[in-house]
Amino acid sequence: MGLPLWNYPTRQGRVLYLCLEDREARIQERVEELTADGAPMLELATKALTLSTGLLFQLESFIQDYPDTKLIVIDTLPKVRDADGEGNIYAADYRDIGELKALADKYSVAIIAVQHLRKLYSPDPFQMVSGSSGLLGAADGCYVLKKEKHDDNTAKLYIQGRDVAQRTLTIRFDHISKEWLLIADDTPEMDIVKSDPSLSAVVSLLHKEQTFRGTASELCQRIHSKLKPNALTRRLNRYAAIAPLWG
Questions:
Q1: Residues 240/203, Cβ–Cβ less than 8 Å
Q2: For residues 116 and 126, is the Cβ–Cβ distance under 8 A?
């Protein structure tokens, strides 16, 4: 739909969602709960081939037919894999994710492969992802959604990846809007941003004026910062990834 998510802008594009554990009636019900206007950019499928029988060909054909595709969701990953219980599990995990990543890189699309968590607790949430470390090793990033109890509305979203800063967000599912709402950013960097006088002054300036155009020297003057312009620039660049959540 092209709407912002948690203050982050989005690029609208076509989405292919492989709902491989759902029935068509349930999918239709969920879409109607989310929007009364329909979702013309959303394509849904309840069946797909596996990686060994032609899934990559199916996905590539879809992207070629719909070049405006930006996102493909595979829900869930085990549904498109052929687990024979033989061979090196790490190598198989790394290979399968690597094949999906190669397709994503080739066409500049995002591919999300949904995987379950183990029931066995680990203090490191990324160690709870079912499968070997080859899954995370081959992927560009990982998002772990973890609840304390199954029926909790609130959960932690743990984020790590090659090109993204490690993050921890607290989110809550709203049963009226059917959306996950951002409650708090528990990322350690947020404490640094809040305690830094210069960064806090930038946030206050943007709250007041919405935008600022000018050089780093002019910005230092506006916020009455004693920092040198290049030092302020380095700080802003360092924490730019979490800027939409500064509040």
A1: no
A2: no
Residue range 135-181, pLDDT digits in tens: 999 999 999 999 988 888 999 999 998 887 788 899 999 988 888 99
Angle at 184 between CA 75 and CA 129, to 5 degrees: 35
The confidence score (pLDDT) of residue 44 equals 93
| 133 DSSP 8-state letter | T
Residue 79's closest CA among 115, 106, 105? Answer: 115
pLDDT digits (tens, 9 = 90+) for 79-101: 999 865 566 889 999 999 999 99
Q: Give the integer Cα–Cα distance in Å for 17 and 46.
A: 9
- The rounded radius of gyration (Å) of the Cα atoms in the chain is 21
Which two three-digit tokens encode residue 48? 């797909």
* Residues 142 and 102 sit within 8 Å (Cβ to Cβ): no
Widest CA span in the chain:
65
What is the rounded distance in angstroms from the CA atom of residue 46 to the CA atom of residue 43? 11
Nearest to 37 by CA among 83, 3, 72: 3
